[in-house]
Specification:
about 60% helix, about 0% strand, mainly alpha, about 375 residues, 2 domains, Hypothetical protein af1432
Length: about 375
């Protein structure tokens, strides 16, 4: 597929932190994607929770299946907008590599543990995974991904952390700085990175409806109060009155996903027509261009509010996340007091900075490994 002028062109990449000879059969972004797929952190995503903890059911989404869904949606939209599909896929597959076990509950707990040591944020941790923590290559730590993939991974960043990234990261040959620069200059990431942010939102809204109904915590009747869902539910039943059970839900979600994808394509094409960015860097200087229409944005926000109230803050979910937070807090304290209980590489690093070494070790755990470690170290079985 041809690339638009505003798309990221791998032949014009800002490069890698450690220069490498180009691959003979793959572009820079294809190479990034392949490195991500073969990484240890990527494989761990299959046992990291999305909303429901890993032991709660075999069919609920995990971080891995979520990342695959984001990549699929992202590539579909990228193709229509003539953006770089390979870069979108690489960012999508890597965007959750830094997530802790137990989802956002684990992140919140680990951030509280690290409050006096620089805090913890999963986007920054995802970058840390690909820049430093993966150990696969003889000449450098991390995966040595291209600037554009790393830029897309870092979705959020505080000014303090952006300044640290700029201070320690080697400047690229063109002098435009590292991935923290845009948070200081108040510019945007590439359009491919902006697309991944939207695809992430579309994916989790849809699959959390599915998982929520499957779990029994939300019902199809409740969803009739959400216009974005109710519209496609009624449309499905009108066209297929014989449908019952999960087929109605699946078809409603499928139609909702399609409508959101087409809305993003149309709204973004209109924004691009107005802004007329002549290059990928010109697009970075514009206001965000990947967008929903105002009407779809409002409906998406209403759906998010519904899920927050009825699913994410459901008493059953809150009870389980409370236990998960306890596991993370008690593991952090246990490893801080006895670093030798960690894997040898992390235990050795603890001498130079125990809290961050503990945070890195904890963030890399799967749900079930964290639960087992907690039981081993405390004698309590809180989960699983």
């Amino acid at each position: 597929m041809p690339l638009a002028a505003y798309a990221c062109n791998p032949a014009q990449s800002r490069g890698r932190r450690f220069p490498e000879v180009a691959a003979p059969t793959r572009t820079e972004y294809q190479r990034d994607r392949d490195r991500i797929v073969h990484s240890t952190a990527f494989r761990r995503l299959v046992y990291k929770t999305q909303v429901f903890l890993n032991h709660e059911g075999d069919l609920f989404r995990t971080r891995l299946t979520h990342s695959l869904e984001v990549a699929q949606l992202g590539r579909s939209i990228a193709r229509a907008l003539e953006l770089n599909e390979d870069l979108v896929e690489a960012i999508a597959l890597a965007h959750d590599l830094g997530h802790t076990p137990f989802g956002h509950a684990g992140q919140d707990a680990l951030n509280a543990c690290m409050a006096d040591h620089g805090g913890f944020e999963h986007n920054l941790q995802s970058l840390r995974v690909v820049d430093a923590l993966e150990e696969r290559y003889p000449l450098f730590d991390g995966l040595n991904l291209s600037f554009e993939t790393r830029e897309g991974i870092l979705k959020h960043c505080s000014r303090a952390n952006a300044e640290k990234l700029e201070a320690v990261g080697p400047p690229h040959l063109d002098g435009r700085g590292d991935v923290g620069r845009r948070f200081l200059a108040h510019t945007q990431p590439s359009l491919e990175a902006q697309l991944c942010n939207l695809a992430d939102e579309i994916a989790y809204n849809a699959h959390d409806i599915d998982d929520g109904v499957r779990s029994g915590l939300i019902s199809l009747e409740q969803l009739q109060d959400v216009p974005l869902v109710a519209h496609f539910y009624q449309q499905t039943l009108t066209e297929h009155p014989q449908l019952t059970g999960r087929r109605v839900l699946y078809e409603s979600i499928r139609r909702m996903l399609s409508a959101q994808v087409y809305d993003v394509i149309a709204a973004t094409q209109a924004a691009l027509q107005t802004a007329q960015p002549a290059s990928a860097d010109a697009a970075r200087q514009c206001a965000p261009l990947l967008c929903f229409s105002p009407a779809m944005r409002a409906q998406s926000q209403e759906l998010k509010r519904f899920l927050m109230k009825n699913l994410y803050r459901h008493a059953q979910v809150m009870d389980m996340t409370g236990l998960a937070k306890t596991v993370v807090h008690e593991l952090f304290d246990a490893y801080l007091a006895a670093p030798q209980e960690m894997a040898p590489g992390f235990a050795a690093r603890a001498a130079a900075g125990a809290p961050r070494a503990v945070a890195d070790y904890l963030a890399g755990m799967t749900d079930r490994f964290a639960a087992r470690e907690h039981q081993r170290l405390t004698g309590q079985k809180l989960l699983g």
